[in-house]
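cron nightly-structures :: item 1 of 1
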Amino acid sequence: IDIVTNEQVRGPLFSVFLWTVVFAGLTVLTQFSLGLLVAIAMNKKIRGRRIYRSIFILPYAMPSIMSILIWGGMFNTEFGAINTLLGSEIAWFQNPNFARFAVILVNLWLGFPYFYLINSGAMQAIPSELSEAASIDGASPRQIFSKITLPLLLKIVSPLLIASFAFNFNNFNLIYLLTGGGPRNELDGEMAGATDILISYTYRIAFGTNVQDLGFASAISVVIFFIVAAISLYGVRKSKVLDTFS
């Protein structure tokens, strides 16, 4: 009831929910776009293609927890490699906008190899006769990609995009290890941080402070369950997996 009626509860929760949707959406968009770009580049015959493919897969092969902690050190204000390269002293995790940018960037690094592999396999599954026929009819490479390759590719990978959105909706490890959900103004009693997503916000309510509001955390968990269940059900219907059992 408080989630709906209490403004002090509803306001922070809505802002966290909005950022969760933006975070998951931007993550899927950036990871898919970069993965597709790399897949297109690696689909061409270039010297050392196997070496490049191995390098691009490395972020996916490394343990994500270790990668997140390394990135956290690289974003350090005083001793981080990123500020050293930029010649700046940006407080990445003290500014909400910089912290959100860092979260998206690190998640892009962790996830684009997956979409690179998916897009590579999907592009090989598209019949080459379609592109050849369009080329004979006078279509440019850009038109072939936008009118033939991309629509067919999206039809193949759309269930995976939906599944990735649902996964990042609850991507607790990244938020907890990189920013801890901050920055937040704890002196004013703020529970919700600028980079908190629903799952990290729920964890903080339940276990992150001396006041453990397990009832409220349980209520939010139920809401998260229904949201993710709806997204997953949409993904199952989109992929038409259950049609084979009917």
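cron nightly-structures :: done
The two ends are 40 Å apart (CA to CA).
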